[in-house]
Amino acid sequence: MRRVLAFLCVSSFLCAGLVLSRRVSADDIAERAKKLHFSSIVLDTHDDTTQRFFSKNYDIGKRNPDGHVDIPRMREGGMNGIFFSIWIDGRIMGPPAVQKALDQIDAVHENVRKYSKDLVLCRTAGEVQAAHEQGKIAALIGVEGGHMIGNDIRVLRMFGDLGVRYMTLTHFYNDEWADSSTDKPAHHGLTDFGKDVVREMNRQGIMVDISHVSDKTFYDALEISKAPLLASHSSCRALCNHVRDMSDDMIKALAAKGGVIQINYERSFIDQAYKDASEKLSGGVVAQFDQFKKECGDDQECFQKKMAEQEKQAIADGRLPHVSWERIVEHIDHAVKLVGADHVGLGSDFDGADMPDGMEDCSKLPKITEALARKGYSDDDIRKILGGNTLRVLEQTEKVSRELQAQ
Amino acid sequence: MRCGEMRVEMLRTILAAGVFVSAGVFLAAAVTEDDMSARAKKLHFSSLVVDTHDDTTQRFLDGKFDLGVRSDTGSIDIPRMKEGGLGAVFFAIWIPSKITGPEAVNRALTQIDAVREQVRNHPKDLVLATTAAEVREARQQGKIAALMGVEGGHMINSNLGVLRSYAALGVRYMTLTHSGNDEWADSSTDKAVHNGLTDFGKDVIREMNRLGVTVDISHVSDKTFYDALEVSKAPLLASHSSCRAICGAARNMTDQMIKDLAAKGGVIQINYHIGFLSQEFRDAEKAKPELEKEIQAEINKRCGDNEACQLVEGDRVVREYVVAGKLPRVDYTRIIEHIDHAVKLVGAEHVGLGSDFDGAMMPFGMEDASKLPKITEALLQKGYSEGDVQKILGENTLRVLTEVERVSRSLNGGK
């Protein structure tokens, strides 16, 4: 855009002056944004990088030619806090699900141990602050799907003791006690046991994550939980009408109880045209997911590769539209206008979703800060969005846990 | 030990109504609470008493059991631990060897949770400890240190990640097998199939060393013991085994094994199970195998398939048979005999206490944790120095833990 304007102006002194003056102020903002970004806690609440730990070709300590997250690119993008997602297919249940979840938690622990100069496992907001002060990247853990507790609250507690700090109540499919947004309702929201799960999460200081769940499950969780909720990776339905996103009413209700919506960068969650075209092409996210799952089985690398290839091809031949990273900022801005800057954060879905153009990996994150600064956001508000709000929810959750355990 | 094995143990042991020859001798040596010397009391209650094997965890799974309340069954609860001056206890995480795979992992997790919940629910009396220093700190705060040991390598599902998760949850020893072989180690009470430890089994030991999880060789075959002894960089623990020279159970250790264990800094923690303490009892069991069926039928009648109940009632039913004269009486002084045998063999630095409370049949006079001061009294009467008694009561175990921690630190690059 800027290049076109410059070209048009080559012959005109008037224009030249205009561009020059714009550039000076633009540089000021860029400078301020850069400084702000790299001095802030930038905490991303959803990264599927955990799956890559099981590939021989992936090393989080080195710059990788593919994917979205590794330590060098986190450093480059100023991303100094990350929730590694523990995820397995929602149709795996019972003890095998527990075993696989443990394997992934262990993989996070082991990678943190391997790269202890850069990474430190954090369980509390205070520990995230301390990691930041030491110049380290805070590694946190979220379990993406209640099916992994094997329908057993005791397993949930053990996950908590192993450092899990949020649990998404479902993934794509209903679990034994909660309905998913992308499955046929079977429980009418949360079952009684599901409500007990939420209560126990409160007691253990595990944040209740309502991304992926059905609207009814969300409202049930909101009613039961004594701590604020997190939507670890969901965007705004008002801008892109996807069931994985939140309606304005839901965002308002979430915020009214102190919660935060962490904007997801997945193209089909942030761009209506893309979502429509994608549904026509492949039947939508879940259908596409199932297709690749069928082709690749447990081979996550194959899965990611196929997904990226198909998207690339479909965009190249025009079957899918381009989506700009600026859509992310639009979603942030929509939510901020709706409920204020205290209730919005970042939940990229890196390494688990299709990133929009311009947000190819986590090294691009400073662009979000700059875009918000250009929109006139204050430094304080930007810091909240980058990570402060998430830390507040974590802190609140810890406080509720202490109170409940003292009873 | 526990039910499944207890039945086997009983089969071999049960009966011989007439074998009471030695009972009187032991009675004479027995100490009653009244004549407990002031010196013994003082020493016992100022010492850190550590018990490395208690199956009470099974009782936690029964939602009604509360460790904080004095129970008229079983051997362990907070009031009786306090009364007996028990300062630290390893709660065993145990499921039968035949349960394997993810199911075993899931069930082990629920037991780790059960221990942690008991600690959470009794914060004034209990504190979870994972290091020797934390055990001492608990003592200073007037609390009982709760530790965890996984009794059987089958619970890691041949997966080092699961072992690491257990360690992260606070598990501080793992018994390499239970009464059946697992995928990578032979048990003393199963037919050998691995010739000791497999290559993976050796990797398990190395990872335990790195993690600071003590290698427990109770239950394992003699060859597995020697393999573990060779591979481990840290001293080993026999968390609940007695001396084979006195009672020829495969679960006990030969004199040579005890010597080899001690030579590398390890400790044998004497098990109080009467079938491991007394050859007479074992012989009696063997002589009348039909009694096993009777006893099992009685336990089933009382408990159904409730495992915790079976453990506790097993002890009670056998006791009833002893009182009725159908089985020989085994006195608690047998524990002292085993301790003394091991001490004479390798010195007081290598012997400790691994009761098997709530998982085995206790001898007369050692019905529960409240009776522990009698061991101190008996050792003093035998002329043991106070320093040696303290070592046996707990200091030796703490030394092994400290050494295991040191090895772990050094394997992790001094971090």
Walk me through this protein's architecture:
The complex is a heterodimer of chains A (407) and B (415). Chain A is of the alpha/beta class. Chain A contains 16 helices and 9 strands. In chain A, helix 1 runs antiparallel to helix 2 and helix 7 packs across helix 16. With 415 residues, chain B is of the alpha/beta class. In chain B, the strands form 2 sheets. In chain B, strands 1, 2, 3, 4, 5 and 6 form a 6-stranded parallel β-sheet that branches. Chain B has a 3-stranded parallel β-sheet with strand order 7-8-9.
Can you write the helix and strand succession of chain A as a string?
Answer: HHEHEHEHEHEHEHEHEHHHHHEHH
Fraction in helix of chain A: 40-55%
Number of helices of chain A: 16
Radius of gyration of chain B: 20 Å
Low-confidence stretches of chain B: 1-29
Choose one word for the global shape of chain B. Answer: globular
- How would you characterize the largest beta sheet of chain A? 6 strands, parallel
Ends apart, CA distance between termini of chain A: 60 Å
**Strand portion of chain A:** 5-15%
Global geometry of chain A:
globular
Q: What is the first-to-last residue Cα distance of chain B?
A: 37 Å
SS-based class of chain A: alpha/beta
* Distinct helical segment count of chain B: 18
Question: In percent, how much strand structure appears in the residues of chain B?
Answer: 5-15%
Helical content of chain B, roughly? 40-55%
Global mean pLDDT of chain B: 91
